[in-house]
Amino acid sequence: MNEAPLNVALVGCGRIAGHHCRAIRATEGLRLAALCDLKPETAEQWIEGDDIPVFTSYHEMLTTLPEIDIVAVITPSGMHFEHGAEILEGYGKHLILEKPTVLRFSDLNRLDEMARARSLRLFPVYQNRYNKAVVRTRQAIEAGELGEPRIITVRVRWCRPQRYYDLAPWRGTYALDGGALTNQGIHHMDLLRHLGGEVKRVNAQMRTLGAEIEVEDTAVAVIEFESGAVGTVEVTTSARPLDFEASVSVVGSEGLAQIGGIAVNELQIFTPDPDACAANSEDFSDCVYGNGHYRLYEDLAADLNGGAPYPMSVDETAKTLALLHAFYVSDEKGDWVAPGEESVRLGRTGDPVADLYRTPAPGAEKRKASE
Question: Cα dist. 216→232, 259, 345, 346 in Å?
Fold first, then answer.
């Protein structure tokens, strides 16, 4: 490790920011250096007695504290590209991008080009890959314990009532949020690829059944994998009155693995070794985000200090986003779709709601007035 810790700042301090703060504080070689949110009181809740400065503008933060090395972008999903691009180009900082990283895979590729041109890094957040149940199932697939995968199934049955979407203007919009698949189901879309391999094509239907929003709160789909395996997806936030499950199961030619619990945290069935279930299950009752952020920050610190490469690559993330868009495009066309085409809805630009989450650079208003 370097003698001096790497300084990490957060931009966007909603509820998941507390999990980032705890993970940063627990990671050797990292230091929580600053917090930024348009509402200072939102950021201040995560100070926890430490002498951490709070800003309402990341431009001011990065100008005042040039020693910041890494910025975690935890703003509304549809703002990640804009905020990330300004931080890369204007201030030359490494980026941590919370799920789904950005809403369009073409934008992720653009950010990657910007970062590479400046010898900077992008670190996508897909913490569920670290869950013990997921790790053990992946190992079983790679070792052939389950035989050839035949059917991979995703079920997310969560509850997001109207009051959830009413918390902020960006929620439930195609421009800044996406629906059940993009916001709540994105980790499970990633696990489809992580456990089942690349997807050849999908056939999806989307509905809005439980809330007055423009995006889907329910999606069902049939999937064909390049391996010849098939799969089904059921993701909804219209379950009532509680979150019930978030599960992935793999039926192989030699056995079955079923991962369940509130957030794919329990190995519920594992026919090659039933005794492995207890050892590879975790209690997420205190936090649906689980424990993966701690491992994620450890891997990030190791990578930047010359250790093992960070395991979630930008290319992997782009493929997950391409799969996500395939579900939307299939629903738009009413037909089977192969990953690779972007939706006309998800991540669309020009929505005036985005103005609520922009922070003008110093002098921007003055320049605009003189044009």
Answer: 17, 25, 11, 11
